[in-house]
Amino acid sequence: MSEKNETQVQQSVQGKVPEIKDGAVIVETPSTWRTIKREFLKDKVALVSAIILAVVFVTVIIWAFFIPRSAVTNVNIIDQYLTPGTQGHLLGTDEQGRDQVKMLIASARNSLMIAFMISIIGQFFGVIVGLITGYFRGIVDTIIMRVIDFWIVLPFLMIIIVLVSIVPKYNEWTLIWIIGLFAWQGTTRLIRSKVLSEADRDYVRASKTSGSSNFMIMFREILPNLASLIIVDTTLNFAGNIGIETTLSFLGFGLPNGTPSLGTMVSAATDPTVLATKPYVWVPPVIFIIVICVGISFVGQVFRRAADARQRLG
Amino acid sequence: MTVLMEIKDLKVHYPIRSGFWNRITDYVYAADGISFTIEAGKTYGLVGESGSGKSTIGKAIVGLEKITSGQILFNGEDVSKPSVRRKMKYNKDVQMIFQDSLSSLNPKKTIYQIIAEPIRNFDKMDKESEKQRVIQLLDIVGLSKNAMFQYPHQFSGGQRQRIGIARAIATNPKLIIADEPVSALDLSIQAQVLNFMKRIQKELGISFLFISHDLGVVRHMTKNIAIMHLGRFVELGTREDIYNNPQHIYTKRLLSAIPQIDIANRDANKAKRAQVEAEYQEKRSHFYDQDGLAYPMHQISDTHWVSTPPTNISEGAGK
């Protein structure tokens, strides 16, 4: 069928076939994935981080499915503060006598999930607002950017704490949306600055003369050219959002009671005797947070270098 | 010949903002009182130095630049308002070829997506005939159909410019604005692309507005030429009028600046150029008003218009 059509086309344009015929492929630039791979091979620390992160994430996500809710909610005072290794508790037990390993996995799942959702929400709104303000410029840009400037100077931790205290039906989704309120401004600025330069390129003008609507130009033409920037920003924000969530939980304004979080585990250290004499209670979650956050920023640096040719190592 | 487009007293002014309140203090007169007509199937050249406003005129015609005042009549209809343009699918008939072929093609889209974009927006086609049309267009510009699935960076400059041309002719437009289409290409490729554009123009009967600063290229491409200086036309005429009988000092100066390989008469040519330059400097205050802008044009023959000072039209015509 298609072959028949081809011959028809060739016949119909015969006489129009020009003399100029050159070979197709001239330059082959390496694909994004090849660049990322090469950057990882050049940066051994990032490579190790990526492997550790992959192992940790997969373990946490799969293992968390097999931990019953009772394991993190039941209180058993008799088994309080068991040292690591006793009665089959690999990392000991906490104040309520819960197994630390199971707590760690369940907490990590919650914390990572919340940080991930906040990053998604922040990126989603940040990218949309950044596209609109950078593309339309003028008065739209001025108004939105002044609002964002104002938003950024607000002490966000304090406002989050107030909101968390006054919201009546409070669960982890409320927390995600409340933190999400303060997660998009930085992304907006970043995206806007890139869109400002992209929107001035001729392919955007060509799209306008090709009859595409502003909406189509923003999301079909410009957005794909921001992909690498968005990936980098999401990765680095993800690490930051883990920090914000654990900070809030540590202060007692994070996840509600009964939902374990890395922050609540660390907050066991607010008890002076635990801090001084029972480091096995609070050291594992601290190490976990440090490993995850540092690992993510190493990987994020690799993405950043892959996206920006001037910073590349290889 | 039918008049395709008529431009009447087109003005594009950009505000200059300054001061503490960022208020408009002055304007840049990028295009100031431009009038001309474009007939169907003909090629027009627009020549001028950098910053003379030639690209601004092209963008204003195609609808990328907001015009300050004046009218653009397309087939007798005023298309200076965006809403009118959208309603009549104006850009189906008026397309543009850009100077920088790399930046005018979206690096994240395949050639197929790029060429199919105007077809999708203006001609509602089913998938199969859209694909056939893209293959046909690629064939017209001399690229194999394998090019459909490749990305812009995989092509050379000349090939990319031909992809830009394929996109511009995709909807069978009546007028194409070519904004310095070859100035980013090297000389051998320039000739290839220019001849190719000429052939397409002849075969498809498209009008071209060819914007360039290269007089040699314009001479090769067009029969009607307008010379622009500082946002205004200084001379308008046929190729013969402009090249053989230049009237305005700026036109003379531009023509004398075309490099010549003529070693025997090198000194004579040099003296001639110096003389043209001296004349330009001497008569400058005469040919331009007190703001340094050109005067309105006056007709001196059937095809030839020149910007001359209002007092001695006859003298300018007599020369």
Automatic annotation (TrEMBL), chain A:
Keyword Membrane set for record: yes
Segments traversing the membrane: 45-66, 112-136, 148-167, 173-191, 222-244, 282-303
Signal peptide coordinates: none
Native source species: Periweissella fabaria
Keywords: Cell membrane, Membrane, Transmembrane, Transmembrane helix, Transport
Designated name of the protein: Dipeptide transport system permease protein DppC
Membrane topology term: Multi-pass membrane protein
Subcellular location: Cell membrane
Protein family: Belongs to the binding-protein-dependent transport system permease family.
Ranges for domain ABC transmembrane type-1: 108-300
Coiled-coil stretches: none
InterPro entries to which the protein is assigned, alphabetical: BP-dependent_transpt_permease (IPR050366), MetI-like (IPR000515), MetI-like_sf (IPR035906), OppC_N (IPR025966)
Pfam families linked to this entry: BPD_transp_1 (PF00528), OppC_N (PF12911)
UniProtKB/TrEMBL annotation, chain B:
Originating species: Periweissella fabaria
Alphabetical UniProt keywords: ATP-binding, Nucleotide-binding, Peptide transport, Protein transport, Transport
Residues of the signal peptide: none
Family according to the record: Belongs to the ABC transporter superfamily.
SUPFAM superfamilies in the record: P-loop containing nucleoside triphosphate hydrolases (SSF52540)
Protein name: Oligopeptide transport ATP-binding protein OppF
Record-linked CDD domains: ABC_NikE_OppD_transporters
Name of one Pfam family that matches: oligo_HPY
GO molecular function: ATP binding
Keyword Nucleotide-binding: yes
Domain ABC transporter intervals: 5-255
